[in-house]
Automatic annotation (TrEMBL), chain A:
Pfam families: MbhD (PF13244), MbhE (PF20501), MnhB (PF04039), Proton_antipo_M (PF00361), Proton_antipo_N (PF00662). Gene3D superfamilies: NADH-ubiquinone/plastoquinone oxidoreductase chain 6, subunit NuoJ (1.20.120.1200). This is Monovalent cation/H+ antiporter subunit A. Residues 789-911 form the Na+/H+ antiporter MnhB subunit-related protein domain. Keywords: Antiport, Cell membrane, Ion transport, Membrane, Transmembrane, Transmembrane helix, Transport. One of its GO terms (cellular component) is plasma membrane. GO terms for molecular function: antiporter activity. It comes from Marinomonas arctica. Residues 127-400 form the NADH:quinone oxidoreductase/Mrp antiporter transmembrane domain. It is found in: Cell membrane; Membrane. It is a multi-pass membrane protein. It comes from the Bacteria. The chain crosses the membrane at residues 6-22, 29-48, 78-98, 110-127, 133-152, 164-187, 207-231, 243-264, 270-292, 299-317, 323-347, 368-390, 410-428, 460-483, 503-522, 569-586, 598-619, 626-646, 652-674, 686-708, 745-763, 787-809, 815-835, 847-870, 890-915.
From TrEMBL, chain B:
Keywords: Cell membrane, Membrane, Transmembrane, Transmembrane helix. It is a multi-pass membrane protein. This is Na+/H+ antiporter subunit C. It is found in: Cell membrane. Belongs to the CPA3 antiporters (TC 2.A.63) subunit C family.
Length: 932, 121
C-alpha cells in the first residue's frame, strides 16, 4: 500500500509547482497547480470501490519506533469522504481563484499556501497516529494563518489572521494534551487501537480530562460557541480562501475530529451534555447573528457557525442515526456553502461591494449568477428537492427521537425549529436583499456577469445540490454509508435517504421553519429596530483588548524582574541554583560518609587558618584594591600548597606559576582602574548578598565534605594501568592531558589562544587615561628600572629558561609538562619586561606572540591528529605494540610534539596579554602605532 | 582533615560570591578569582584527598586519582585566560563608558532607587 503514503505528500510536492510556474501565464499556473491535486483525487477515487465494499487501507512507515511514533496513514470511509471534499472543492477553488485574484496579487504565492493547506488537511484526515494527526492539525492552523493574512497590507486581514491563529493554536495545544493523555491511557498512539478501546477509555479516570481537552481543540477549530468569534473576522481573507477553508475544510476539521473519535469518546452523559449543548447554542447564536449582518460574507460566516453547531449537536446526541445525519450534513453543507461563498465573491468582484445595504436588484445585471445563488441558498434554507432539505429533515427527526434531557427533551426540537426559522430568514435575506428589493445604491462599479469560467465551479456545486437533493442514494449513498460505518467503527443502522417520508412531525417542523422564516424576514424591520437597542460589541476589539492587557501585564512582570541591573540577575541566578542544589541535598541522610578521614596535623591547621584569614581579609578590604590583591595572592599561594600536600604536584606547580602571572596582570590592570571602590551598597543589599553567599558556601562545603567522606569508585584505574604501556609515560596526569584526553587539551589551548587574541583586539583600540601620580597624589618613582633588579633578572633569565626546559622535558614521566614550562618561561620573560621596560626588550627579543599562538595550536593539531590516527590502529593491536620498543619511542615523541604545541600556545597567549597590557603604561602605547 | 578542607572550600565560595555580587568590576574580578580557587579545590577533591600518593607511576605505593587533576590543571590555565579577558574587558568598559560599574552606569543613590526601578539603561 505504498501509494497511500504518497497521497498526502503529492500535494506537498505540489506546493513548489505554483512558485515555479508563476512566471508563466495565470492560466498555465492554475492548470499546473491543479495537476497534482487532480492526480491525488484520482488515486483516492481509485480506492473508493474497495472502501464501499467495506475495506480499509492502512500503510505505515517507522518514524521513531522507540516511542511508538510512526508515519501512518489510513483510508477508510470517513477519510475518503473528507479527502474527496478537500481535493474536489480544492480543485474548484483553484479554478475560481484564477479569476478572482487581481493581477497585483502574487498568484504563485497564493496557490503555494493553498496547496500547503490542502496537504495539511489531507494529513489530518488520513492520519492513523495521534501525534501525527496533531502535527497536521497544527499545520492547518499555520497555513490558514498564511492564507487569511494573504492581503497583509490590510489591518483587518492581519488582525483576523492573528485572532484565528491564537484561538485555533490555543485549542491545538489543548488537543495535544488531550491526545497525549488519551494515548497513554490506551497505551498506544495508533488510531485503530484507540478506536477499539472505547470501553477502556470511558471507564478510565482520565476520561473527563481527555474529553474536555479534545473537545477544546475541536470547538476552537470549528468555531463553536464561545470560540465562534474568530470565524467572521477571518472573512478578511480572499473569498476563495473563505469558500475553501471556512465552509468545506478547515472548520470541518473540528467536526472531523469529533467524528473520528466518536467510537472512542462519545456515548456518555458528559459527551452528550458538552457537545450537544454547545452545538445547540452555536446553532442558535450563529443563525440569529447571521440575520443581522450587512456584509454578505459576514452573513455566510455566521450561517456557517450555525450549521457547524447543527452538526455538532447531531454528533452530541449519541445515537447512531444522528451520527449518520451529521455526516450527511457535512457533505451537504460543504457543497452549498462553498458555492454560496463563491457566488458572494462573484458579486463582490463584479460590483465592488459586499454591503447588502448597497447591493439591491442585482437580478437585472447578473441573472445567471443570481439563479445559481438562489438554488444554493434554497438548499441552505432547507427547501425540498435540495440536498440541504434532506439532512435538515434527518436532523429534525433525530431531535424528536432523543430523550437525554429527560422531561425537558422537548426543548431540543422546539429550539431546532427556531434555528430553522432563522436559517430560512437569513437565506431569504441573502436572495431578496441582494437580487431584488429596489435598485443598487452607490456601487463602485456597474455590476455584470463574471467571466465564463469563474462561474463553472459554482455551477458544478449547485448542480450537485440538486442532484444530491433529488437522487440522494444514487449519488452519495455508498459514500455516506462507508463514512458512517467508519465513524461508528461498526455497521451503521438502516436509514432511508428518500425525499418523501409521508406526513410526519419533521415535515411539519420544516413547514413551520419555512413559513416562520418568510414571516420573520417580512417583518425584519421590527427585528432590526429591536436589535439596534443593544450596544454593539465588536469581538475584534474585545479580543485585542484581552491581548493588549496580557501584553501590559507581561511587561509589568518583565520590568519587575528585568531592570537592567546585572547584580540583580546574578543574585537571582545564584539563588535559583542554590534552591535547586539544596533541595536535592536534603535527600541525603547523613553528611559524613563511611570513608575514614585523614588525621589533622599542625601545619595543615596553620595553612587553613591563614587561608581563611586572607580570604576574609580580601572581602573586608575589597574596597582598597591593592590590599585586596595582596591578600588574594596569599590565598592563591596556600591553594597551591594544598595541591602539593594532597599529592598533586602538577597542580601545585601550575597554580604557583599562574598565581604569579595573575597578580602581575591584576597589578597592571589596577594602574588604569580606580584604586578604591566607593562604598555604595546599601546595608540591606550587603545583608542580602552575605546571606546568599554564606548559604551557597555552606551548600558547597557540605557537598564537598559529603563527597570526600564517601568511597570513590573511579574510572581512573584505566589511566593508571595504561599510562606506561599505552601512553608511554609515568606521569599519569600529563599522559591524560597529552594522550588520553589530548583532544580536550587541544580544545582548551584553542580557547586560550582565542581569549588572548580577543584581549589583543580589546587593548588595541583602548583609549585610557594614564595616571601620572599614585592614589595619594605622589608622583611615580623616577627610577623606573632599578639597577639591582635589572642585573639579577638578566642573570636569572638563562637559569629560568633552563628550569623551564627541564620541566618540559621531564613532564611525561615526572611532574611538569608543557603548561607549567610555558608559564615559567612567560614569567621569566615578563621579568625582563619589568626590569628593563618595553623599549629595551623590543630591540632585543623579536618574538611575534600571535604567530607563536598560531604555530602552537597548529603543531598540537597536527601531532594530535597523527597520534589519534596512530592511536586508533594501536588500540587494535595492543600486544604487538608492547613488544616493539621502537614504536614505543615514537609514541613518546608524538606526545612530546603535542606538548610543545601546548607550551608555545601558553607562552604566546600569556605574553600577548601581558606585554600588550604593559605597553599601555609606556610611550609605546599601541594607539599611536595604529595610526602609523 | 576532610572537614577542614570542606570548610575552606565553602568559605572561599562564600567570599567569592559575595565579591562577585558587588557593583564594581574590579571587585567582581577578585570575587571570580576566589570562586575559581574554590571550584578548582572542589573538583580536585572529588578524587578524594590522599597524602604522598602523587599519580606518578613507581614513585609511591598508592596513586591519587589523576583524572580530576588533569581537569583542574587545564581549568587553572583557562581560568587565567578568562580572568585576563574579564579584567581587560573591565578596563575597556571604563575607557569607553567612563566608569567601572558593572551596569555601565552609576546608579542613583539608594534613596531614589524606588523611583528608578524601571532600569537604568
Amino acid at each position: 500500500m505504498n501509494s497511500l503514503i504518497w497521497l498526502p505528500f503529492l500535494p506537498l510536492l505540489g506546493t513548489l509547482i505554483p512558485l515555479i510556474t508563476a512566471r508563466f501565464s495565470r492560466t498555465a499556473c492554475a492548470f499546473m497547480t491543479a495537476a497534482l491535486p487532480a492526480l491525488t483525487l484520482f488515486l483516492v477515487l481509485s480506492h473508493a470501490g474497495d472502501i464501499f465494499q467495506g475495506e480499509r487501507f492502512q500503510a505505515a512507515l517507522p518514524w521513531i519506533p522507540a516511542i511508538g511514533l510512526e508515519l501512518a496513514f489510513r483510508l477508510d470511509g470517513l477519510a475518503l469522504l473528507f479527502a474527496i471534499l478537500i481535493l474536489g472543492i480544492g480543485l474548484l477553488v483553484i479554478l475560481y481563484a484564477r479569476y478572482y485574484l487581481s493581477a497585483k496579487d502574487s498568484i504563485g504565492k497564493f496557490y503555494a499556501y493553498l496547496i500547503l493547506f490542502m496537504f495539511a488537511m489531507l494529513g489530518v484526515v488520513l492520519s492513523d497516529n495521534l501525534i501525527q494527526l496533531w502535527f497536521f492539525w497544527e499545520l492547518t492552523s499555520i497555513s490558514s494563518f498564511l492564507l487569511i493574512s494573504f492581503w497583509g497590507h490590510k489591518t483587518e486581514a492581519r488582525k483576523g489572521a492573528r485572532m484565528a491563529l491564537t484561538v485555533t493554536g490555543a485549542g491545538g495545544l489543548a488537543l495535544l494534551a488531550g491526545l497525549l493523555i488519551l494515548g497513554n491511557t490506551v497505551g498506544s498512539f495508533s488510531l485503530q487501537d484507540v478506536l477499539d478501546s472505547g470501553e477502556l477509555i470511558k471507564a478510565s479516570a482520565n476520561y473527563p480530562v481527555i474529553v474536555v481537552l479534545v473537545l477544546l481543540g475541536a470547538f476552537t477549530k470549528s468555531a463553536q460557541f464561545p470560540f465562534h468569534f474568530w470565524l467572521p473576522n477571518a472573512m478578511a481573507a480572499p473569498t476563495p480562501v473563505s469558500a475553501y477553508l471556512h465552509s468545506a475544510t478547515m472548520v470541518k476539521a473540528g467536526i472531523f475530529l469529533m467524528a473520528r473519535f466518536y467510537p472512542a469518546l462519545a456515548d456518555t452523559n458528559l459527551w452528550f451534555l458538552i457537545v450537544s449543548l454547545t452545538g445547540l447554542i452555536t446553532f442558535l447564536v450563529g443563525a440569529y447573528i447571521a440575520l443581522f449582518q450587512h456584509d454578505l460574507k459576514g452573513l455566510l460566516a455566521n450561517s456557517t457557525i450555525s450549521h457547524l453547531g447543527l452538526i455538532t449537536l447531531l454528533l452530541g446526541m449519541g445515537t447512531d442515526l444522528a451520527a449518520v445525519a451529521a455526516i450527511f450534513h457535512i457533505i451537504n453543507h460543504a457543497i452549498f456553502k462553498a458555492s454560496l461563498f463563491m457566488a458572494a465573491g462573484i458579486i463582490d468582484h463584479e460590483s465592488g461591494s459586499r454591503d447588502m445595504r448597497q447591493l439591491n436588484g442585482l437580478w437585472k445585471y447578473m441573472p445567471y449568477t443570481a439563479t445559481l445563488a438562489m438554488v444554493a441558498s434554497a438548499s441552505m434554507a432547507g427547501v425540498p428537492l435540495m440536498n440541504g432539505f434532506l439532512s435538515k429533515e434527518m436532523f429534525f427527526t433525530e431531535t424528536l427521537h432523543q430523550a437525554s434531557l429527560g422531561s425537558l427533551s422537548w426543548f431540543i426540537p422546539v429550539l431546532a425549529t427556531l434555528g430553522g426559522v432563522f436559517a430560512v430568514a437569513y437565506s431569504t435575506r441573502f436572495i431578496h436583499d441582494v437580487f431584488f428589493n429596489g435598485e443598487p445604491i452607490n456601487l463602485p462599479k456597474t455590476p455584470h456577469e463574471p467571466p465564463r469560467y469563474m462561474r463553472v465551479p459554482v455551477e458544478i456545486l449547485v448542480a450537485l445540490c440538486l442532484v444530491v437533493g433529488i437522487f440522494p442514494s444514487l449519488v452519495v449513498g455508498d459514500l455516506l454509508l462507508a463514512a458512517a460505518n467508519a465513524t461508528l467503527n461498526g455497521p451503521a443502522p438502516t436509514y432511508s435517504l428518500a425525499i418523501w417520508h409521508g406526513f410526519n412531525f419533521p415535515l411539519l417542523m420544516s413547514v413551520i421553519a419555512l413559513i416562520g422564516g418568510l414571516y420573520m424576514y417580512y417583518n425584519r424591520s421590527h427585528l432590526f429596530k429591536f436589535q439596534a437597542q443593544f450596544p454593539t460589541s465588536d469581538p475584534k476589539l474585545v479580543f485585542e483588548g484581552i491581548v493588549q492587557s496580557l501584553v501590559v501585564k507581561a511587561q509589568r512582570v518583565i520590568t519587575m524582574t528585568e531592570n537592567g541591573s546585572l547584580q540583580r540577575y546574578v543574585f537571582f541566578t545564584l539563588g535559583f541554583a542554590v534552591v535547586m542544589t539544596a533541595s536535592s541535598l536534603m535527600k541525603l541522610n547523613t553528611t559524613a560518609g563511611q570513608r575514614p578521614e585523614i588525621p589533622v596535623d599542625a601545619l595543615s591547621i596553620t595553612c587553613a587558618v591563614l587561608l581563611c584569614i586572607s580570604a576574609l581579609a580580601t572581602v573586608i578590604w575589597h574596597r582598597r584594591r591593592v590590599v585586596a590583591l595582596l591578600t588574594l595572592s596569599v590565598v592563591g599561594l596556600i591553594v597551591s600548597l594544598a595541591f602539593a600536600q594532597f599529592s598533586a604536584p602538577d597542580l601545585a606547580l601550575t597554580q604557583l606559576s599562574v598565581e604569579v602571572v595573575t597578580v602581575i596582570l591584576l597589578i597592571l590592570a589596577l594602574f588604569f582602574l580606580p584604586q578604591k571602590t566607593p562604598k555604595e551598597s546599601s546595608p540591606r543589599r550587603v545583608v542580602r548578598d552575605l546571606s546568599l553567599a554564606s548559604l551557597i558556601g555552606g551548600v558547597i562545603g557540605t557537598i564537598s565534605y559529603a563527597l570526600m567522606t564517601r568511597p570513590l569508585d573511579t574510572i581512573s584505574t584505566f589511566f593508571t594501568e595504561n599510562s606506561k604501556t599505552g601512553g608511554g609515560g609515568t606521569n599519569v596526569v600529563n599522559v591524560i592531558l597529552v594522550d588520553f584526553r589530548g583532544f580536550d587539551t587541544l580544545g582548551e589551548i584553542t580557547v586560550l589562544g582565542i581569549a588572548a587574541l580577543g584581549i589583543y583586539k580589546l587593548i588595541a583600540k583602548m583609549r585610557l587615561f594614564m595616571p601620572s601620580t599614585d592614589d595619594n597624589g605622589l608622583p611615580w618613582s623616577e627610577d623606573r628600572h632599578p639597577i639591582l633588579l635589572t642585573v639579577i633578572s638578566q642573570s636569572l633569565l638563562p637559569l629560568a629558561l633552563l628550569v623551564s626546559a627541564y620541566i618540559f622535558l621531564r613532564g611525561h614521566n615526572m611532574p611538569g609538562g608543557g603548561f607549567i614550562a610555558g608559564l615559567i618561561t612567560s614569567v621569566a620573560i615578563i621579568q625582563q619586561y619589568i626590569a628593563h621596560g618595553v623599549e629595551w626588550i623590543k630591540t632585543r627579543i623579536k618574538l611575534d606572540y600571535q604567530i607563536m599562538i598560531g604555530s602552537g595550536i597548529g603543531i598540537a593539531t597536527l601531532s594530535g591528529l597523527g597520534s589519534w590516527i596512530f592511536g586508533h590502529t594501536f588500540l587494535s593491536s595492543w600486544f604487538d605494540y608492547f613488544y616493539l620498543p621502537v614504536i614505543g619511542k615514537f609514541e613518546l615523541a608524538s606526545a612530546m610534539i603535542f606538548d610543545l604545541g601546548v607550551f608555545l600556545t601558553v607562552v604566546g597567549a600569556t605574553m600577548l596579554i601581558l606585554a600588550n597590557l604593559g605597553q599601555l603604561t609606556t610611550s609605546e602605547r599601541p594607539i599611536q602605532k595604529e595610526h602609523d | 582533615m576532610e572537614g577542614m578542607y570542606a570548610f575552606c572550600v565553602g568559605l572561599l565560595t562564600a567570599c567569592g560570591i559575595f565579591l562577585a555580587l558587588r557593583g564594581r568590576t574590579f571587585s567582581v574580578v577578585i570575587g571570580l578569582t576566589l570562586l575559581s580557587y574554590a571550584v578548582n579545590l572542589f573538583l580536585f577533591a572529588s578524587g578524594r584527598l590522599k597524602l604522598n600518593a602523587a599519580a606518578v607511576l613507581e614513585q609511591s605505593e598508592q596513586y591519587s586519582d589523576p583524572l580530576p587533576q588533569a581537569l583542574v590543571l587545564t581549568a587553572i590555565v583557562i581560568g587565567f585566560a578568562m580572568t585576563a579577558f574579564v579584567v581587560i574587558l573591565a578596563m575597556r568598559a571604563r575607557a569607553d563608558l567612563g566608569n567601572d560599574h558593572v551596569d555601565g552606569t552609576i546608579p542613583e543613590p539608594p534613596n531614589n532607587t524606588t523611583q528608578k526601578s524601571g532600569g537604568s539603561q
